[in-house]
Structure formats: structure tokens, C-alpha cells
């Protein structure tokens, strides 16, 4: 097997789900978000672990992601969060996926697909309360719900929205969106429209805004052990579920003034030992980490020197070689008493931890531990 791999701790994922359960009220349902290959962790094994641990249903971004889970034998309800084109409507009916609906065209396509199968399509209305991506406006809600009601092939599962700034220290925008959403829910109820599921809570809302828990929450990044942002004073005992590891494949001694990697962005200041690791940006190790990041070898931090290549990186061992070929190297995760977090690498890359997790490419094997 390739020496570079991502180690996924399913016990940590189960633990993180329990943290969510302890935060919400009894009876609030959990829609576990496993889009983008479960944030890089592996959609099928992670989904199974989450359902075993008590998640009520799953959420993905694309109907094709839902199809993957169905073909793996997963039978729990699956909400597709993103929009779809009319020609994709048949997937929702064939694989029993819940569609986020925002246009009459969506409704018509789903109804026609259901009619062809002598079946029905389950839909969930997406309300735009200020995110600005997809969703109907509150002023359109009643007429849109009436369109759903008129199509006997459609079954209404509920309504949801997404809060754009819930992970900010200042909650004013989030509270404003939440108030709009709650008013819209009340409007539907006053017109005797049943909304079995009402959901506004992403990970940040679960942590910081209990009034937004409604009847269902949608945890994402916290399931994988990471807080939504640095601005939050999150109180959950989260355990990161992924570690990225490889092994040293080459060690050599070089003199002072040796230039390293593309563009000669680094030169040794004194005689030193260099070690080569067999991974790079082709595996999702961000090129912005060049000359910034560190890795763990032998329980010590070692600087990444020179530019990150597609398939290799180089680290400076120092003037004494205490590293040999085959030694474990940890790109993020724990080794001995030391730890390099994905959040640390995200800061160095100028991005967020979500992106770095999702970027770990398919050529990196996932190894699951419990």
C-alpha cells in the first residue's frame, strides 16, 4: 500500500455526534452533513458510523452523492442541499432523495419524474433569509407552498434555511436571518401547512444559537472534530477525526547554500540533512504551505523547505540526522507529545480547515480505525 494515507478515526466521529446530541433538546432530529465525500473523510463509512451513532438522516450537496450512498445500501433519508437541473429530477425519484426546491421549474420536473415512475418525490423548501445563494424569498412562500400542494406527486418534508454569519463573534446578522425564518414558519402554520421538518442550524448555530435548533439541526464540520471558526468560543469537546501521514523515502546530507525545489525559494544556511516525503499538492497538501509549514518526524517539528511539489515535499532535519528512511511523518495530527492541527495549516495557507480537508485527493488511501 502507498505510504501516504489519511487515517480516519470513526470513534472520534461518533464521539462528535454525541456532543451534538448533548447540545440539542430531546426530539430535535439530526441531519448529518456528509457532502463532498464527508468533508474528505469518506462518505460511505462515515455515513454508516453516523447512522449507527444516532443520526436520523443525511445531507449531501448533489444528487449523485446521494446515489452513491443508496448504492452502498444506505436506506436513511437523504436531503440534497443544492439545486439541480430538470434532467436530474429522475434521480430523486429513483433513489428516494429529498430535493431542495426553489422554483416552479423544479417542482414540475420532479412531479413529471414521479408520474413516469408512478411514484412521488419528497421535497423540502429552501428559504433565502439572507445567504443569497439559492432559495425563495419569504414573500413568495405561501404561493410556492400552494404550488407544491397542487402537485399530488410531491410530498412536503419541511423547510430550511442557511445562516451566513453564524460562525462570527457578532451574531446580529444570524439573529436577523433566524427571525425572518421563524416568522415564515409561523406564517405557514397559520395557513395550516404542515412542515414536519424545520431546520436553520448549521454547526455554528448548534453551538451558539439554541433558538435556531428548531426541529432539526444540520451538523457539518463539527462532526469531523473542528470548530466552524476561530471567532467562536465553542464549548464542545470535539475530537479531530482525520490525520494525514506518510513515510520518509529519502535522506541526504547537503552543504550550505544548497537550493531546494522549484524556483529556488529556499537555500540552506549551513550544512544540513534533508528528507523527502512522497506527497504534495496532487494529494491535497496545499502549495501555500511552502516554506511555512512543519511536519512531525520522531516526535519533533521539522520545517517544510522549498516549494511544495505535486508529488513530493522536502523537510530540513537539521545538522544531526536522527531520521531514517521509512520513519513515519505526520502532516497533520498527533505524534508523541506534539500535534499539528489542520487549523494551523489552514491559517498558514490563508484558508479554512474545511477546504484543506476536502482537498485531500482520491489518490490518498483512507484507513479507518475505531
Automatic annotation (TrEMBL):
Keywords: Isomerase, Pyridoxal phosphate. It comes from Acetonema longum DSM 6540. The modification N6-(pyridoxal phosphate)lysine is found at residue 35. This is Alanine racemase. It comes from the Bacteria. SUPFAM superfamilies: Alanine racemase C-terminal domain-like (SSF50621), PLP-binding barrel (SSF51419). GO terms for biological process: D-alanine biosynthetic process; peptidoglycan biosynthetic process. It catalyses: L-alanine = D-alanine.
